[in-house]
Structure prediction request, 137 residues.
Amino acid sequence: MSIEVTIVTPERRLLDQMVCREVELPGAQGMLGVLEGHAALMTPLSIGLVHLIDIDGGEDMYIAISGGFAQIGPERVQITARSAELEGDIDVMRAEAAHQRAMQRLKNRQSVDPDRAEMALARAVNRIRLARKKVNI
Prediction:
């Protein structure tokens, strides 16, 4: 059993036809698991980690995404993300700085859009989780 995964962003094609056994996606209503034979589905994605399980004989891969959409079919998953990063692409210092900025903005709610600051904080935390391999928290 296998499923093909492609991940694209407005800037680049991050993964092209990666084959794995299962895909876990951060859906808008919670995590979504996809196996071969899944019913056709188009779903929004939230900020979170895409987990590709059992790639080429057992390896797993995580990709940090900042929302988007997934088009799911019986044999493939096409993810169109606002942004997507592999673990090795993440600049931890930059992510930590973004985290600190977002925390400061949330403390000063009168001078900033709190929803935007919360989204920035969620993106930073997501990137830091992956970079530090704390993907199960």
